[in-house]
Amino acid sequence: MPKKNYFKRDSRKRYQSKRFQNPFFKRKSELPWKHAVIAVGVISVIVLIVVVSLGHQKLNIRDVVITGVEHSSKTSLEFEILNYVNRDALFLFTRANIFLFRPLDLVNQLSSIFTFATIDVSTQGTVLYITLEERTSNLIWKTGESEYIVDLTGTVVRKREGEEIQKDLPLFIDKNNLPVSIGEAVLTEKEVNGTLLFHEHLQAQGISFYDTIFDRLAGKWVSVTTAAGYALLFDPTGDIDAQASRLETVLATQVDDPSALDYIDLRFGDHIYFK
């Protein structure tokens, strides 16, 4: 009997909880319009804030401060910077906006056009700061009628403009008159350093010279034109000290009149040829 009463009470509780529904009279579920409207409203406000922020002129880069430029064309540099900041971004905006500006992209663009040792780009508010370090001018590379400034790595830094004066820079001449471009390596770093070291030995021996001629198509053909009129052929990638020592010995023991020489070839070790 208690067991029967238990099931009766349990059935009554389930009925009173109103968990039973008539399958022929199902209640229609209501769509959550209120939540949807709130969600759409929040998203619209966020989109509006983003659009206003990205399009507002007060958030655009207004000033550009460039430091470190001494020889490069500042006008050309400013043109490329403006070209980048005016580039389209997200279809409706430009890179001038401080939120859409990408420093690394500008560094890559400038590096593809100019040859600087370092480029640092940063922003502070609406001011763009660009700090540059130019490559060192170590020699003049002449090909045809054009002259270029080259650094110790053999990289062409820029073209020598008009009457620009470059004091005490050695003149290297390309015998083949091959065209070059900014950023191109016309020599290896070892060739540059070896040639400059050979120049130091010549000065120490009291041998005056004018220029150094390179035949890049003939391999290791490098010649220094001396003031006495003869040429010194040497290997800038070889043992410069040994070549200079052999030159000094030849001039002291085997040559009576250097002005009568046509050339001295130091490229083949202990075998020295002169005419």
Automatic annotation (TrEMBL):
The chain crosses the membrane at residues 36-55. Keywords: Membrane, Transmembrane, Transmembrane helix. This is POTRA domain-containing protein. The lineage of its organism: Bacteria, Candidatus Uhriibacteriota.
